[in-house]
Write a structure and sequence with these properties.
It is built from 6 helices and 12 strands. With about 260 residues, the protein is of the alpha+beta class. The chain folds into 2 domains: about 60 residues, 434 Repressor (Amino-terminal Domain) (Orthogonal Bundle); about 180 residues, Umud Fragment, subunit A (Ribbon), CATH 2.10.109.10. Strands 1, 2, 3, 4, 5, 6, 7, 8, 9, 10, 11 and 12 form a 12-stranded mixed beta sheet that branches. Helix 2 packs across helix 3. The N and C termini lie far apart (about 60 Å). InterPro entries: Cro/C1-type_HTH, Lambda_DNA-bd_dom_sf, LexA-like, LexA/Signal_pep-like_sf, Peptidase_S24_S26A/B/C. One of its GO terms (molecular function) is DNA binding.
Length: about 260
């Protein structure tokens, strides 16, 4: 037997991890009596309200109204790689709640089994580009992240054994600008291991200064400095090398692989 409109609404709310109608009403910004009347089947709701509920619960208005389509996009919600807003971090790189800011694949599931996501962010070999940032409902809150623009099938054996990367923590980013030429050319892609977000060796990293778009740069630690300093090096010899305190940088991840155009 097909569920009623209210039963479908309740199923979507529960699948999105809202434990009660009260929590759902608070998140939606509607009165509890109005929401309960919809969920209990006392009042039907129109397409406009269905769209509002669908966006919050990660489903479709069509499912809520007619039962057609997927029950919940809480299964669809993992389509982003979460990011952080540099304006919300303190000088130590933490949010107000004490959580460390970082990119994460926690809320992403591949459409192609074993694929690695390419995110809508371009690493600047100069100035980077942050693409569309979207918010999705997860549990009783929302997460912000970068849209997935492509999926790459890269053998896990290569990632583990050759690139020395964690397959479950890697993402793909496009390179723009000329500051890392001739090593990295505009339009090239790089494999970034998000789990390697500390500087353990002198190599190439995806970095952020907390203010501008993310960049791809070669980092070299300056010995015998306290606090630790690091040189930010562009492979393009025409460009200047900078030295900053390591603590001022956010290391997004280590560059573990390079997908170059011919």
């Amino acid at each position: 037997m097909q569920k009623s409109m209210g039963e479908r609404l309740r199923a979507a709310r529960e699948a999105a991890n809202y434990p009660s109608a009260t929590k759902a009403a608070e998140a939606l910004g509607v009165s509890l009596s109005t929401y309960r009347a919809h969920e209990n089947g006392q009042n039907e709701f129109n397409a406009e309200i269905a769209n509002r509920y669908a966006k919050k619960f990660g489903t479709t208005a069509g499912y809520l109204l007619t039962g057609e389509g997927a029950r919940t996009a809480a299964r669809l919600a993992p389509t982003i790689v979460t990011s952080f807003d540099p304006d919300e971090q303190d000088q130590d790189g933490f949010a107000e709640n004490g959580e460390e800011h970082s990119y994460s694949r926690e809320h992403w599931t591949p459409q192609i089994a074993g694929a690695t996501p390419e995110v809508d962010v371009k690493l600047g070999a100069g100035s980077g580009i942050v693409g569309e940032v979207i918010n999705l409902p997860v549990g009783s809150g929302n997460v912000a992240g970068h849209k997935i623009v492509a999926e790459w099938l890269i053998p896990m054996g290569y990632l583990r054994n050759e690139a020395k990367a964690s397959p479950s923590h890697t993402i793909i980013m496009e390179v723009v600008g000329d500051s890392m030429q001739p090593t990295y050319m505009p339009g090239d892609r790089v494999i970034v291991d998000l789990s390697q977000n500390q500087m353990t060796t002198d190599t190439v990293y995806a970095i952020s200064d907390g203010y501008s778009e993310p960049q791809i740069k070669r980092l070299q630690r300056v010995p015998f400095t306290q606090p630790s300093q690091v040189k930010i090096i562009s492979d393009n010899p025409a460009l200047e090398t900078f030295t900053v305190e390591l603590g001022r940088l956010t290391i997004i991840g280590r560059i573990c692989g390079h997908i170059a155009r011919k």
